[in-house]
Amino acid sequence: MKKITLSLDVIAAIIAVTILQACANTAGTQCVCEKPTLTPASGPAAIVIIKTATMGASLRYTLNGSTPTGGTSGHGTPIAAQSGSVPGPLVFGRTLKAIAYKAGCSDSLIAVGKY
Asked: Are 104 and 72 in contact (CB under 8 A)?
């Protein structure tokens, strides 16, 4: 194994660059909502739980295969919380699609489950 020795000046410069890059990435970019998770992910279900890891986000879902959209005038059934449930039982052959959204953030990717 090769030993590498760095001076304190080099270590300080590496730390400073790392901190500046982290600040630029968080301050200059818009947040993106995490893709919702569906439990169960597919198959027969009496209830499907939809969750997102994005704090303060809301959810929308559809059961007819159309794609939900976020925002106050979005398409789909709203769940005004970070998690919620879709009442069932879901009819065989249904496709559930869900999206997470939050003001000031980009909408999540679409979660898809076949029930």
From this structure: no
Which domains, from first to last, does the chain contain?
31-114 (2.60.40.10)
Q: What is the pLDDT of residues 37-83, one digit of tens each?
A: 999 999 888 889 999 999 999 999 999 989 999 987 899 999 878 88
User: Residue written as tokens 């959209």?
Assistant: 69
Token representation of residue 77: 């059934």
Query: Which token pair is 8?
Result: 């304190």
Give the amino acid at 71.
Answer: G
- List Cβ<8 Å contacts ≥24 apart for 79-84: 79/50, 82/51, 82/52, 82/54, 82/55, 82/56, 82/57, 82/58, 83/49, 83/50, 83/51, 83/52, 83/59, 84/49, 84/50, 84/59
How far from 106 is each of 7, 28, 69, CA to CA, in Å? 42, 14, 11
Q: What percent of the chain has pLDDT over 70?
A: 73
